[in-house]
Every structure is written in structure tokens, then in C-alpha cells.
Design brief:
Elements lengths: L3 E5 L10 H7 L5 E4 L4 H13 L7 H17 L2 E4 L6 H14 L7 E6 L7 H6 L20 E6 L3 H9 L4 E4 L6 H11 L6 H14 L27 E4 L5 E4 L10 H8 L9 E2 L4 E3 L4 E6 L2 E5 L2 E3 L4 E21 L3 H18 L6 E7 L18 E10 L2 H8 L5 H4 L4 E2 L9 E12 L6 E6 L1
Parallel strand pairs: 1-2, 2-3, 3-6, 4-6
Antiparallel strand pairs: 1-7, 4-19, 5-14, 7-8, 8-12, 9-10, 10-13, 11-12, 14-16, 14-17, 14-18, 15-16
Helix pairs in contact: 1-3, 3-4, 6-7, 7-8
Length: 454
Amino acid sequence: MKTVRIANGQGFWGDSLEAPIEQVRRGPIDYLTLDYLAEITMSIMQKQRARDPRSGYARDFVSMIAEVLPDLVERNIKVVANAGGVNAEACRDAVIEVARRAGFAGKIKIGTVAGDDIMDRLDDYISRGVELKNMETGEPLAAVRSLVQSANVYFGGRAVADCLAKGAQIVIAGRVTDTGLASGPMIHEFGWAADDWNRLAAGTIAGHTVECGAQCTGGNCLIDWETIPNMADIGYPIIEAQPDGTFVITKHEGTGGRINVASVKEQLLYEMGDPHEYITPDCVADFTTIKLSQEGKDRVRFSGIQGRPATDLYKVSISYSAGWKAVGSLVYAWPDAMKKAEAADRIFRERLERLGLKFDHVVTEFVGANACHGPLSGDPSPDIAEVQWRVGVRSSDKKAVERFTREIAPLVLNGPPTVTGFGGGRPKVEEIVAYWAALMPKGEVAPVISVVEA
């Protein structure tokens, strides 16, 4: 059977800059996929575009393409990325400029998958009864409409496949699902029908397995993590996909890390709700039907996957402004480090109250004692060497948060002894961006696909 090798080289915006280059150069692949977007990322990019209409995408992607473009053209490797953010066309234009400067004009086609950005259509939707209710609370979007910063529909792998079918060698998408980056090439290569639910579910699960990059090749792995070889040169995952929906997860030979059933299972549980119903725009995948087998060193085979019909709804990722926050900290040293940190917290809260400052939330953590596990941590050792007292506040009143930032430094001299750790200076006031997940009928929006020659 025909085998297509689909490599992941980016698990998030800020992942290794070298990983995609290594994926291209250290062995044979047919596709390179790169996942840049998270829910918060869209609002960041929307703000960037508001300041500069030529921005709003992952600029790292453009410099990476400039580095590997000769390899891509010579070996006909296709690239699929959601680096377009909220401005896929600007990202495409930047890549075209890079290609022309490198002498590849007329030698490569670049496609975009857009249409997911519905910011300028929100009022029309609401007026027509598309309420975009919060999936957790049921509240209509109208309640926070004036605070919305970004709104993007999740398109699936079918949109990517349609772009590839038009001849694109580089596909730049906006808010395509993480799984769709990998399932799209499978749909295109194997001609899977829109109602081939089992194979579409297999493509979805393949995409989910590799979407976080090295998290499925031994990175961030709980099981026997100390024995994972050569993590300094960890390999990123590759899907070896076949037309019947079976596939193998592997990596380039000679790279570090480990792929076994245990490491793959850890990634499968990532962001998992009901394992029977992993809902995507293309299908509903049933994770309980997955059969895993160790096929050899660093090779895990997936088979038996089943799926069900897609829903008639798209998920919408919306971000909105929800006030202001700031976080500050001090470090207290032995002896009685924990007692000093607790005293500092008590004194600090009393001073905030005396100043009449009101906050929606005040949260304290004692790093080194209970920050990771909270109350499950139990009582800290009386001989603990040092504790970081970390306190954060949030409020709709920006001035109150600004005043909070000026009250931590005085504790250095007018609070408990043996304090350090204020070298970073006054805490920074930051806007809180909250997440609003909603659903909308698929008939209300459609992918916009275009392909141009560099």
C-alpha cells in the first residue's frame, strides 16, 4: 500500500526553531506540518494586526521557510501550517517575497485557507439569532460583545485537502484544527470521502498524536523519563500513513527520544474529554477503538479506529477582555522560611485592606511548598531551605492592580527577614484575555481557499 510520511515540526508558537529544519533534512518525508495556534494566540495576533495591518501571523514560520525552501523544492516536500493566524494573506505574501528573493519565482505554489476570522460578522450573526452561546454557561455572546478581541471558526482537514488539491505546495491556514493539519494531507493523498468516517477518524487521531511535537516522542513523559535517551537531540514525530487508515508513529533514525506504546498513550490523553466522542469538523472519533502495538524500535502502529458522522456545527474560539492582573513574588530563606512567607502574605493582605483596595481575586502560592499540588502537598517540612511567596490579583479596576504592584517591594525592609528575589523589579500589569467557546451552524461560514504562484 502507498505510504505517506507526515512529519510534525512544531507543537506550539515558541517551540524549537530547529525542529522543522531537522525534520526536513534528517530523513525522507512527504509533508511537514506545523502547529502554531492556541486559543490565546489568536487574540495576541489580532492585537498585532490592529497595530500593523501587515502582521497578525507567526513570523517564525517565514524565516523557517526561508531556511528550508531549497530542500522543499528539490524534494517536493509539502508544508501545512496554521501560521496564518488572523492574517493568512499577509503571511502568504511574506513567504512569496522570501521565495522570490531566493530565486524560486514560478517554482512553488502557495495556498491559503482563510474565512475562519468572523470578527467583522459577529453583529450580523447576533442580529439574526446566531447567539454564539458560551458552551459552559449558556450565556449569549451579546453579554460580552463589546469586549471581544478575536473570533475564529475551527475548520478541519477537508479545507486543507481542498487547498492541496488546487496544487499548493505550501498551505498557510488560519484557525484550522490541530488535527486537521495532518488529516488534511491524508484526505488529499488517499481520496477519502466526506462520509468515510472510520478513515477520517484515523486521520484525526493521527493528527492528535503528533500535534504537540516531541510530547509523543519522550518529551514531558512521566514514564521512565530518566531513561529516555539523548533528549538534547530529541526527534519529533512522523506519521507513516496508509490508505486503509492504519498508521505508524515513528521518528527519524539516529535522533533522541523514545516512541513506545506508553509514551504514545500519554499524548492520546492530552486534552481529552469523553474518549467516545472526540468531535472535529470532519468526524467524531472514538478513542476507545484504538488498537496499539509496538512494531519495532521507536515504531507504534495504530489500527482498528472507528468514527461516526460529523455534526452540523462548527466550534468557534472567541477571546475577550476580562480585566487586569499582576503577579509578584519574594523569596524567604531558612530558618523558618515557610513561617516567614506565610507572615508576609498575612501582612500584605492586611495592608491591601487598609488601603481600601478591592480585587475580584487574590491568590497566594508558596512555591517550593504547595504551588504545584496545592492542598494535596500537605504540611511543608519545617527545615525547608527556601520558599517563594507568590501573590496575584485580578480586577476590572486597572488602577487598583497598578497600586498592588507598588506594595510588594516595601516588604523587603518592613516585613519578615531573610528576603530576596526582587531583582526583577515591580510586577507588570497585564490585561486578562478570557476564552469563550461557542458553536455555530456550518451553513453560516465556509473556508476561503486560494492558491497563487510565487
